[in-house]
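User: Can you recover a sequence for this backbone? Please restate the input before giving your answer.

Assistant: Of course. Working from this structure:
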């Protein structure tokens, strides 16, 4: 149904305080889509099992027993050397200015609603759609630019192992602010993907190993017009150039020795159904070896699918964000995935309801939407 070409893409995640045109037909699609996903059966109680992140020593026995049971249950489909599973939580777009910053100024944690989901996961990541800096100057003629005070860092650090920088707001205050953000995140021991001090850094996956499984996360922006792109001698974001993306995915395995490779994309229109471009690239990425494809930017949920058995989530919607005009902008998914060396073994979508101040509250837990 998407007839526009990718090169004409001018969708924006800068709709704060502005009118958002959504044709009636799309409204119907939104309703049908939301009904399909939101009224599906719950799989479990979402936030029930809090446990400290990255706890290994005290849990070794339990993990071992769990692992053995899991191996037994899946003996016919898993290799004997399978490790894990580990849990990965991925959330959508995080914008910490305005309502979320007001909350933090009062000492309120904007992520508190999902604290137990994060605490119970081995790896936690999300798309940071704002600059964290005290320097730089706003990009001229950009209707909405987001820069937040470094007081946001302790909250991010509490809940996230790494954040994605490949989006259309990382460059809002120029290279100086972006560079400051990179060093602030590094000081806070928060990893990054999809951005760096140069082309090579921006295209290097964030690698993390948990429970014997080595995971590579890559990030790419393709919001038009092409801008704030890292180059050989210039900081910026990783651009979604197909050939480069596919090379990066292959290198994540061959050079970085990852067992599981997940590209996180910043793409698409502000519509409930992914466009042809997204579908085409998702397939190419999986053909190149991606174990899952996860996207954001449309500021609403988009449809999902499986390709060659691998899950594709075209858009997780907003996670922490305010200033939007429509109810669909205030709902998103926090994905909880279980990974082992063979890839993604299980997915749950934890529905988040974002309040008017941009803060997410947990809702239902949906069984893997890509299997419906
Ligand atoms: Zn965006």
């Amino acid at each position: 149904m998407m007839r526009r070409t990718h090169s004409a893409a001018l969708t924006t995640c800068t709709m704060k305080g502005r009118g958002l045109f959504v044709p009636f037909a799309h409204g119907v699609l939104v309703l049908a889509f939301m009904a399909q996903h939101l009224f599906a059966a719950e799989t479990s109680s979402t936030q029930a099992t809090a446990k400290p992140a990255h706890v290994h020593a005290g849990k070794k026995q339990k993990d071992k027993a769990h692992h053995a049971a899991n191996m037994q249950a899946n003996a016919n489909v898993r290799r004997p050397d399978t490790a894990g599973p580990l849990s990965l939580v991925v959330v959508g777009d995080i914008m910490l200015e305005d309502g979320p910053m007001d909350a933090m100024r009062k000492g309120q944690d904007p992520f508190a609603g999902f604290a137990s989901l994060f605490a119970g996961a081995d790896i936690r990541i999300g798309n940071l759609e704002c600059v964290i800096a005290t320097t730089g100057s706003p990009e001229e003629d950009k209707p909405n630019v987001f820069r937040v005070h470094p007081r946001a860092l302790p909250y991010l650090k509490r809940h996230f192992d790494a954040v994605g920088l490949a989006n259309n707001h990382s460059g809002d205050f120029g290279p100086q602010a972006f560079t400051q953000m990179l060093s602030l995140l590094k000081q806070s021991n928060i990893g990054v993907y999809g951005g760096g001090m140069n082309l090579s850094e921006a295209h290097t996956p964030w690698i993390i190993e948990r429970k014997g499984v080595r995971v590579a996360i890559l990030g790419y922006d393709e919001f038009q017009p092409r801008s704030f792109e890292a180059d050989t001698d210039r900081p910026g974001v990783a651009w979604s150039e197909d050939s480069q993306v596919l090379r990066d995915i292959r290198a994540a395995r061959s050079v970085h020795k990852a067992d599981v490779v997940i590209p996180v994309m910043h793409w698409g229109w502000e519509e409930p159904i992914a466009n042809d471009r997204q579908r085409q690239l998702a397939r190419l990425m999986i053909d190149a070896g991606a174990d899952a494809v996860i996207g954001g930017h449309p500021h609403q949920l988009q449809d999902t699918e499986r390709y060659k058995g691998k899950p594709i989530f075209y858009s997780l919607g907003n996670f922490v964000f305010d200033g939007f005009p429509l109810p669909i902008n205030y709902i998103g998914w926090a994905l909880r995935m279980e990974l082992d060396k063979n890839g993604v073994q299980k997915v749950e979508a934890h529905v988040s309801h974002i309040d008017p101040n941009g803060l997410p509250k947990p809702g239902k837990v949906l069984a893997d939407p890509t299997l419906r």
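That completes the design. Residues 1-80 have pLDDT under 50 and may be disordered.
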